[in-house]
Amino acid sequence: MAFITCQNASFAYDGITVASGLNFSVCRGDYLCIVGENGSGKSTLIKGLLRLKPVQSGVIFTGDGLKANEIGYLPQQTDAQKDFPASAYEVVLSGRMSIRGLRPFYSKSDKNACEENLRRLGIENLKNSCYRELSGGQQQRVLLARALCATRKMLLMDEPTAGLDPAATQDLYKEIEKLNKDGGITIIMVSHDIPSSIKYASHILHMKGRQLFFGAASSYISSGIGSELMGGALNA
Amino acid sequence: MLEILSEMFSYAFLVRAVVVGLLVSLCAALLGVSLVLKRYSMIGDGLSHVGFGTLALATAMNAAPLAVSIPVVILAAIALLRISESSKIKGDAAIALISTSSLAIGVVVISLTTGMNTDVCNYMFGSILAMTKEDVTLSITLAAAVLTLFILFYNNIFAVTFDETFAQAVGMKTGLYNMLISFLTAIAIVLGMRMMGALLISSLIIFPALTAMRVFKKFKTVTICSAVVSVACFFVGVVCSYLYATPTGASVVIMNMLAFLLFWLARLLTLKARGNGAKAKRVSNF
After folding, report:
1. Percentage of chain A with pLDDT > 90?
2. Distance CA A216, CA A32 (A)
3. What is the CATH code of the structural domain delimited by B2-285?
4. Is A81 part of the contact surface with chain B (CB cutoff 8 Å)?
5. What span, in angstroms and rounded, lies between the C-alpha atoms of B73 and B76?
6. Which chain B residues touch A111 with a CB distance below 8 Å?
7. What ipTM score was computed for the predicted complex, to two decimals?
8. What is the residue extent of each domain of chain B?
């Protein structure tokens, strides 16, 4: 049984369908990259997977012991966060919110989990640093640590490398690969970077208002659409 | 100094004003941190104008000012929040529309009933004489509610303020917290408005948070500093207004402005000191 199964799902804004015909599943340990142009419905799908947006038709269901609130989310950064006064520790600890439930304060185990995830991503030394003074790559690590505080099973990332320089991008890809391979964490990532998606992902979902391709990353390259885009990306 | 204070507090109206003012400053500063960081600063300003309109209406209808203002301003707060959340109408434009409309309605109502007199001036710029016993009770209740909710939900308020999408994704009812914050803001504004003035009350929300953010870098320290700065500025402002017979609201805002400049200067100096230190270190490495 898969973690997430999408059966003929579609999404709409104000009655206008923006994504349809979505049929795919994500199993434990998978690394799925969702690719496609701007406005192809990727962000809408992410909202659907997080249960922030209801499906117009079809179904999305979770299984294999994954609860809907056990998906760690790494959203795109907002402008407001760029000058937000918060320490890295405060940000990471806020990831334990769903586990804390109705208790008003964080417990020892919440704080331990927070420390553990800071260590895991190699940012313990930045614990007391101000979030807005960190580099782009460091900020993404802080947000990754926060997402890991919310889950041990699945991470959902919305263009995690947006705005990072090439070196920081590669670092972040390696970090995510490590979480997937060594940590056994299932990854779903929205990306514009098709070459890296093929390099790191196990599965690719290509969208353009509807599902154009879903399958293993290796068969994506040989598929018509994949090779066309790879050619375009390489020539660009 | 002590003589001046004991002289001040021999007037019952001043005691009432200081109690209400200190509590409102405290609440406004706590709520302000979240509002400023969520880019909702203008909501405070919009609400105070709505409050002006409702005060004018209440006076015209011979109704109790708080009984009319509080529900209307709360409704306006919820409406403004909804507008800011929907992407279709630009939030800042909507706030400007609502605030100027209420201001215009208020002015017309006043001129049709009592005529443009000192009342209008008092509404606009505040009057220290405006606080009644009822206000004191209400402000103590408000302060108790804001403090309790703020402490109990501190971590959730942080999460909603820092990243609403993430909070939503892990199953938090973010709409509820936004509603709670604007509800409490509305009450704080109506309470403080008649003393601080409709045109000046939003400074209590915006200034302390921005002042604290000049120097502090953690959410917790920013929140605490903002509360302390706000309370201190109000107190010093009231004492100055007593000593020099200046309008209370404006004196408090000037104190807030001075505190902001002071903190800003402090940051510049520390940055410069750190910059020089780093330079010295680099030079010594050669």
Report:
1. 14
2. 9
3. 1.10.3470.10
4. yes
5. 5
6. none
7. 0.84
8. 2-285
